[in-house]
Amino acid sequence: MNGREKYMKRIDKGIAEYVKGGKFNDAGKCEYEKGKIFEKENKINEAIEAYDKAIDLYQMDKKTMTHSINEVKLSKADLICINDIKNKITEAKALYDEVAEEYLKNESIGKIFAEDFYMKIILCYFVYNDYVSAKAYISRYFGSEKDFEASANGKLLQGIVKCFERDEHFKEEEDGINKVIS
After folding, report:
1. What angle do CA 22, 58, 72 make, to 5 degrees?
2. Which of 32, 38, 106, 112 can pair with 47 through a Cys bridge, CB separation 3.0 to 4.6 Å?
3. Confidence (pLDDT) at 176
4. Residue 143: what are its φ and ψ, rounded to 5°?
5. Confidence (pLDDT) at 173
6. Measured in whole angstroms, how far is the alpha carbon of residue 85 from the centre of its chain?
7. What predicted TM-score, i.e. pTM, was given to this entire model?
């Protein structure tokens, strides 16, 4: 057994002891650590599984800070998006949305952070060529913000939407030309 395997066994033993003792927050921290290790080793499915367990453990502890749960949710969502796991992209968007909603509860800085997570959701739609949903999402979350259209993020998203619309327009013209030619 190498050093890494021994370390992982110790973490598993610690998690079992923490759970047995009702220390779910500590068990969640250990499970999150496992997820980070798996992520560094590029064991994506194992990392996602560890993050899921960490979220569950954190949620079992009423004393767990929302920040800890959100950190794990963001790690999982980022991992899904970075590795382009198509069957889990909806879950990643939901995780970003949950975290953004939590941040919005904090009046002072929440809006700034929430906007970043909403940007990630919208960019996920763009990556999968769903600009219609992206536009709807932009309207839903940023339509009520007067400053958003003038912001750098607002201009970026508007530009991306225009590019998608132009692309769709060109595809329609190309289809029309192809019908005339054939």
Report:
1. 150
2. 38
3. 56
4. -60, -30
5. 55
6. 12
7. 0.79
CB contact at 8 A, 77 and 69: no
Quick check: 57 and 27 in contact, CB under 8 A? yes
Residue type at position 43? K
DSSP string for residues in 110-146:
HHHHHHHHHHHHHHHHHHTT-HHHHHHHHHHHHTT-T
Whole-angstrom Cα Rg for the chain:
21
**Mean pLDDT by 10-residue block, N- to C-terminus, for the chain (182 residues)?**
87 95 94 96 95 95 83 94 86 90 74 80 83 82 68 82 73 57 57
Q: What is the DSSP string of 20-61?
A: HTT-HHHHHHHHHHHHHHHHHTT-HHHHHHHHHHHHHHHHH-
CB of 133 closer than 8 Å to CB of 125:
yes
State how far the Cα of 100 lies from the Cα of 47, in Å rounded to an integer: 22
Other CB atoms within 10 Å distance of the CB of residue 22: 11
